[in-house]
Amino acid sequence: MLQLGAEGASAELLECVEIGGKVPRGFCVAHADPDAAAGGWLVVGVQEDSVLRSFAIDAETGRLSRAGELAMPSPGVVQLAE
Questions:
Q1: What is the C-alpha separation between 71 and 2, in angstroms, rounded?
Q2: Alpha carbons 59 and 51: distance in angstroms, whole number
Q3: CA angle 22, 25, 26 (to 5 degrees)
Q4: β-pairing, 51-58 with 38-46?
Q5: For the whole model, what pTM was predicted?
Q6: What ranges in the chain are assigned the alpha helix state H?
Q7: Sign of CA dihedral 60, 63, 35, 26
Q8: Please, what's the b/e burial string for 18-31 (b: 16 or more CB within 10 A of its CB; e: otherwise)?
């Protein structure tokens, strides 16, 4: 996960996290409600394992923790629905 500076001019590698599957195909970041404990969510489509995996983004550190998964046939594109 990369954390961007206030101006978006710099990035810092915080950690590498195993997705627990083969062929991560797409991902999206969803920002949480300002009052939520998590700083948002990272959702990854794991194409070869036919699953979507979600990770909570810690609001203070930006680090990820595995949150859940959903069976989904061969996810290729992951995007937010409005």
A1: 27
A2: 25
A3: 135
A4: antiparallel
A5: 0.76
A6: none
A7: positive
A8: ebebeebeebeeee
Question: Residue 41: beta bridge partners?
Answer: 30, 56
- The encoded tokens of residue 68 equal 């859940």
Task: Give the tens place of pLDDT for each residue, 31-47.
Answer: 877 666 668 889 999 99
67 phi, psi to nearest 5 deg: -115, -40
Cα distances (angstroms) measured from residue 7 to each of 11, 47, 49, 56: 10, 34, 37, 24
CA distance 68 to 65: 10
Whether 72 and 45 have beta carbons less than 8 Å apart is answered as yes
Q: Write out the two tokens for 22.
A: 């083969």
3-16 tens-digit pLDDT: 555 565 566 788 88
| Residue 26, both tokens | 């797409």
